[in-house]
Amino acid sequence: MFSSILAAGNGWTKIINYQLVPGNEIWRFVLVLLVIIVTLAAGKIAQFFISSLAQRGEKKTGENVMALVLKCIAKPFSVAVFALGLIICRWLLYFSQADGIKPAIATYWDNVARAVAAVAVAYAIYKVVDVIEFYLIKLTSRTRTKLDDMLVPVIRKSLRITIVVIAALWIADGILGANIRAILLSAGVGGVAIALAAKDTIANFFGSVTIFADRPFQIDDLVKIEGYFGTIEEVGFRSTKLRTRDGTLVTIPNNTIANTNVENVGKRRFIRRTSNITITYNAGAEKSKRAVEIIKNILTDVPEVSTNSDFSPKVFFNDFNDSSLNIYMTYWVAPPDWWLYLEINQRVNTEMMKRFEAEGIEFAFPTQTLYLKKEH
Known about the structure:
This protein has 11 helices and 10 strands.
């Protein structure tokens, strides 16, 4: 019995000490697997703990810098824990050295571990841009103009793109040993092709610079561009997003905006209405004159109709139409609220109909009179 147990133990010992790779027994690879599993789990637990801590901080004091920083480092911290696990795994494995030269697999393992650690650092810096954005939003909220509000997302994107490019070059050239200079030099022809393909992107970038320099509109302004009518939601590097009245989101390239007419409806001081009121020829001179007076009185009684000397209501009996007498009417509504403008128009039209009916003045509509000549 004892001999059989001893034989079984010797068998397990042989299996455990069996070397898949020279110098590395099976138990080393088992430990490597366990370390990877543990570090992945530890990273997720740490991420959950940091995120929970940030949420509790926000519930107590509202959105603050410390909570933002904790939320920013939660995911990068889990990546850093995994990089630590890779370093520990490297210590658990044995790589023989010939004449003091480190074998290639050991070098690759070290480079990968350092690259993952560098990714964690770059990821943390990438996320910390949210903290900068938080301060910029607080700063721009104190100003009256909304132009600086448009700059915040552009600065955020610029910082993130810069961080990604620098981190990629640093990891590829400084850690993984890729010869970036040689790659860039050998890509001369390809670079020309890429530059030609990216000409629209470059044009849109300079279009965004033009928008920020000329300031034809701001966020939430009501504008009309290329036949699209709506409010500005976002201005980016490549395009501007406009929300139309029916809820559709339209993306317009900045180069197009820089080279077209932009009608900023939100900057108008008034909304103007121009209309032609037609009455029948039966009204005669007196009723035509009375119709003009009625319209002027109606517009005078509406407080939202501008009485400014340059924008006062204009009403004239100005023309003889084929089947009607024409009264020209124009007025300006302030403030320039579209729904208020429609309400004022309805009020003016209703009052006009009431007073015309009381005075016996009839509105005209297109008519034709045929005279038939009798033949004897």
